[in-house]
Amino acid sequence: EEEEERNSEAKSESSTTSSSSDEEEGPPDRVDTDQERCDKPPLQSERAPPEKKAAPIPDRTAASLPAEKIPSEPAVFIPVDRTAEIQEARLKLPILAEEQVIMEAIRENMFVILCGETGSGKTTQLPQFLYEAGYASGDSIIGITEPRRVAAVTMSQRVCKEMNLSDRIVSYQIRYEGNVTKDTKIKFMTDGVLLKEIQKDFLLMKYKVIIIDEAHERSVYTDILIGLLSRIVPLRNKKGLPMKLIVMSATLRIEDFTQNTRLFPITPPDIKVDSRQFPVTVHFNKRTPLDDYTGEAYRKISKIHRMLPAGGILVFLTGQAEVNSLCRRLRKAFPFRPHCKAPAEGEEDTVGDVKKFKKAKQKKTLTMPRIDLDNYSTLPVDEGDEDREAGIDDEEEQLGSDLDLDLGEEEEGAGEGDKSDPSLPLYVLPLYSLLAPEKQAKVFRPPPPGTRLCVVATNVAETSLTIPGIKYVVDSGRVKRRFYDRVTGVSSFRVTWTSQASADQRAGRAGRTEPGHCYRLYSSAVFGDFEKFSPAEITRRPVDDLVLQMKDLNIDKVINFPFPTPPSSEALMAAEELLLSLGALEEPPKHGRLKELERAKLSCPITPLGRAMAAFPVAPRYAKMLALGKQQACLPYVITLVSAMTVREIFQELDRPAVSDEEKDKLTGKRARVVQMKRIWAGQGGALGLGDLMVMLGAVGACEYAGCTPKFCEDNGLRYKAMVEIRRLRGQLTTAVNAVCSEAGLFVDPKMKPPMDSQVTFLRQIALAGLGDHLARRVQPEEVLDPKWRNAYKTPLLDDPVFIHPSSVLFKKLPDFVVYQEVVETTKMYMKGVSAVEPEWVPVLLPQYCHFGKPLETPGPRYCSETGRVRCHRESTFYRVGWQLPAVELD
Ligand code: CDP
Ligand code: MG
User: Has UniProt tagged this entry with the keyword Nucleotide-binding (predicted)?
Assistant: First the structure.
């Protein structure tokens, strides 16, 4: 109970103070009475070569943090019984020379930033230093977060081995898996896991130290964690419960942390670990970069293997499927018996269980007249809810799995490798985040004698993991990144060029143990065009999505949050408004003092619907549609609609002026054809009011039925690229929906049957629920005073009249109420992607937009014996514009 009180107190405190001042920070000294205390922690004699010992902590820190305010330390020494072999290997690590400096800085500061070259020993050694210094004594534990699951697992295993301790003591926790026990002292975890823990225990009472590793990756979750901990740590110290935060990063841009007074009012000391790096010769490709970089990588590896001296090869590709495909090809070309038959990992059927889907489909009955706002998809509670995380890896693999084409497969046997000398076996190992831990561990063991190690990796090998014995790096220069469409807000993964900083990191992997070579599969001119650093993910994200994610983590006052790189406040406020209107956040009180209202407005907590929405990787508007889509077996349609709306324009541009008579005829013919096809695709569903959304469904279904060929698209005025993109997105979203809503059991059925009439009604309601802020009402003929409003619509957002676009199948129908996907301005303001909705749905499905009047006399109050509530009809009007809506029965 006490703990809970403390938590809520901590929470309110943290959310109202935007920066902590000196006074708040002074923690009383605390003596660990249960621990054997000695004045100076003894240092093991073999550590810390003398010449490095004296490096001073930066002056500004000592000056700005008076001695009596420095949190106390558990000054004990916990011996660790390492093997001689391990001890010897450790002594070679540059970080060992800095142990004393680092530990002193940590003892005297709440926050410390530690940066050093990859491989200098940060991840494996710092937890051990802390353990020996007693930071895991008593009930406390040491926590280390990694943005990648693969790093969390392998690093815990490595530290476990180095310390000669059981994995009950040095453990890891990733999303669905872990070996943490009550005896755990050092806990490696993904950043998502720690964020979830903060949700449950804001002060993280278990931990005496938190290490945020790989901070340079700037993953959104790492950024948010650093922001949160910059508040949690002072709070803990103020309460006399000492806690430390150590931010670790490769030697990439660290000013975002060190020069950030909002984050750390007192500049934390930053300690740099020098490390020995052997020279790496960089070779660029002369040729213009190829799209087939896996093929190019294959040729380069073959060449290196056959012509260059011994030394491991490390290849950087972008995703799991690519990695597996290249591994297969290499194993076939350079067979190595015990391993050549190893099954390609991670190639499960992503399509799902057809039977299950059919059964699920049959089961649904269509008796409900209306979709139910309270009936949305939720995350399965039984399985891994506690450890839900959204680390980079997961999404990369989950969403990316079905879009990776197996490039190498068909060419198999045609490569140079066939002619290779079979007496030179290549020991080929894959490395990517979702690889089983036993298989990941293989890359750290020496290859079988007489073979050459070749690791085919995603960018997990860039900074997170150091593979011993690598002399050659083959760099595709590509990375799979998450992209967000600013307009639709939908995210997708795309392969792009990496940054210069990343390419240099990759090259550096070749020079860990001896001079090495890096082969870049692109020209130096292309390298020159790379961006210098990869931008922080947070600045590339639409913030409505981000705000929803943070609210899901119970970070209600997003605007005060100390982001390392903050999004603009306007963007944050607009996001909050949109989320409120979607019902993802709880309404602030409508009455009270203006100031308080304003404050309440910017710190609204999340609703259960909001939590359901937060689970989908799309913009909140579409996430709401997906969350509600499980009703009436509408999900396959909603997934298709969301995909099509994301791609935006599915039809070719046919209104362009023709350059020749021939083209003019062609365009005219095509336009007529498209009009005809649209009518066919709209069919019954279109006639029932689903309008352009039905055209989207019909077009996608027909195109898939024809095998999604360029010819079909060309003949019917569809954009082939758009249709391919829609297919890809449908696959991604189906995977996401199946992950969230286990009972969905969906598979991508490209050729959907048209929805039944009742489903059409539900789809229109779902569209209304998701696109509620895009509602428009027809200006009735008798209301028209100014001719410019003839046949026009009024929207709450725009002052000017808007019109249904002539390309819409509802252009001539002019329904009274419509929702639209977007407004485009040409000669007039035109709504595109229009669907008709019924006014009586509005107060029920968009109550947050409505004002409700007094109870009506007739038909009178009704008592519901089931709920014990009295329900009665009330009049409602739509906000801002005051449209009269039909009376609705409410409590
Ligand atoms: O975190 P940082 O990049 O600074 O280095 P680290 O990950 O702590 O790695 C330090 C050293 O441990 C490297 O030289 C790795 O090769 C070695 N190591 C290993 O041999 N086996 C592992 N499973 C992990 C690391
Ligand atoms: Mg590391």
Answer: yes
The Cβ of residue 446 has, within 10 Å, a number of other Cβ atoms equal to 11
User: Among 229, 214, 216, 244, which residue's Cα sits nearest to residue 152?
Assistant: 214
Ligand 1, pocket-test mutation among 158, 167, 443, most atoms within 8 A of CB = 158
Which regions of 45-84 does DSSP assign to beta strands (E)?
none
- Cα distances from 10 to residues 25, 140, 232, 239, 883, in angstroms, run 14, 19, 8, 10, 45
Is residue 137 a contact partner of residue 35, using CB atoms and an 8 Å limit? Answer: yes
pLDDT of residue 886: 82
3-state secondary structure 393-406: HHHHHHHHCCCCCC
Report pLDDT digits (tens) over 783-841: 888 999 999 999 887 888 999 999 999 999 999 999 998 888 778 888 999 999 999 89
What is the Cα–Cα distance from 237 to 668, expressed in whole angstroms?
A: 74
Q: What token pair was written down for 874? A: 């009330």
pTM of the prediction?
A: 0.60
Residue 494's SS3 state is: strand
Per the listing, tokens 């002056």 go with 59
Burial class (CB in 10 A: 0-12, 13-18, 19+), 884: exposed
Is the ipTM, as predicted for this complex, more than 0.95?
A: yes
Q: Do the Cβ atoms of 626 and 737 come closer than 8 Å?
A: yes
Please, which residues bridge with residue 793 across strands? 778, 802
Q: Ligand 1: which atom is nearest the Cα of residue 125?
A: 8
SS (H, E, C) 799-860: CCCEEECCCCCCCCCCCCEEEEEEEEECCCEEEEEEEEECHHHHHHHCHHHEEEEEECCCCC
Coil, strand or helix at 603: coil
Ligand 1 binding residues, C-beta < 6 A: 93, 116, 118-125, 154, 158, 444, 466, 468
Strand partners, 873: 889
Cis geometry, peptide bond prior to residue 338 (ω within 30 degrees of 0):
no
The conformational region for residue 707 under phi > 0 = left, psi -120 to 50 = alpha, else beta, is left
Are 635 and 746 contacting, i.e. CB atoms less than 8 angstroms apart? yes
* pLDDT tens-digit readout, 362-411: 333 223 357 777 777 665 443 322 222 333 333 333 322 222 222 233 23
- C-beta of residue 316 within 8 angstroms of C-beta of residue 556: no
Contact between 390 and 192 (Cβ < 8 Å): yes
Which residues make beta-bridge pairs with 190? 146
Tell me, what amino acid is at 378?
T
Burial environment of residue 827 by CB neighbours within 10 A (0 to 12, 13 to 18, 19 or more): exposed
b/e code 201-240 from CB counts within 10 Å (16+ = b):
ebbbeebbbbbbbbbbbbbbbbbbbbbbbbbbbbbbbbbe
Residue closest by Cα to atom 18 of ligand 1: 466
- Atom index in ligand 1 nearest the CA of residue 158 equals 23
Burial 618-632 (b: 16+ CB within 10 A, else e): bbbbbbbbbbbbbbb
Distance from C-alpha of 343 to C-alpha of 356, rounded to nearest angstrom: 27
Please state the φ and ψ torsions of residue 187, each to the nearest 5 degrees.
-120, 115
CA of 158 to the centre of ligand 1 (A): 8
Exposure pattern of 717-741 as b/e (b: 16+ CB <10 Å)? bbbbebbebbbbbbbbbbbbbbbbb
Across 481-498, average pLDDT: 65
CA distances to 178, 268, 355, 698, 754 from 705, rounded to whole Å, are 44, 61, 21, 10, 12
CB 315 within 8 A of CB 299: no
Give the per-residue SS3 of 718-756.
Answer: ECHHHHHHHHHHHHHHHHHHHHHCHHHCCCCCCCCCCCC
Enter the DSSP assignment of 408: S
Closest ligand 1 atom, residue 118 Cα: 3
Token pair of 543 as six digits: 């913030």
